[in-house]
Design a protein that fits this description.
Number of strands: 0
Radius of gyration: 19 Å
Number of helices: 5
Distance between the termini: 50 Å
Helix content: over 70%
Shape: flat
Strand content: under 5%
Largest sheet: none
């Protein structure tokens, strides 16, 4: 219940789903089709959260994560840092070429 509430009031999730789902919506769709698409997105989101939380709480995965927490954080942080540097680089090239 807490996870569902957090997901529903999270502005990032709302913006993400609005931007993704709105590309597939058409004015010609009926209300039932639009509600069905929103329901499908909610089911997919809920299924993902349930599977992710269940898998992380498995004893074998917990036993792997706990001793390797620093290494996992380092690897994930490095990947995010490299990706952000790449995005900054591409943005700078884009703005230098277009201006």
């Amino acid at each position: 219940l807490l996870g569902l509430t957090t997901s529903l009031i999270n502005p990032k999730v709302i913006i993400f789903f609005t931007s993704i789902v709105s590309q597939f919506l058409n004015d010609n769709y009926t209300l039932y089709t639009k509600v069905g698409m929103a329901f499908l997105a909610g089911i997919i989101d809920t299924t993902w959260y349930v599977l992710a939380s269940y898998s992380v709480n498995l004893k074998s995965i917990k036993n792997f994560i706990k001793p390797n927490k620093k290494l996992i954080f380092f690897i994930l942080g490095s990947i995010l840092l490299i990706f952000s540097i790449y995005l900054i680089y591409r943005s700078m090239i884009y703005f230098l070429i277009t201006n």
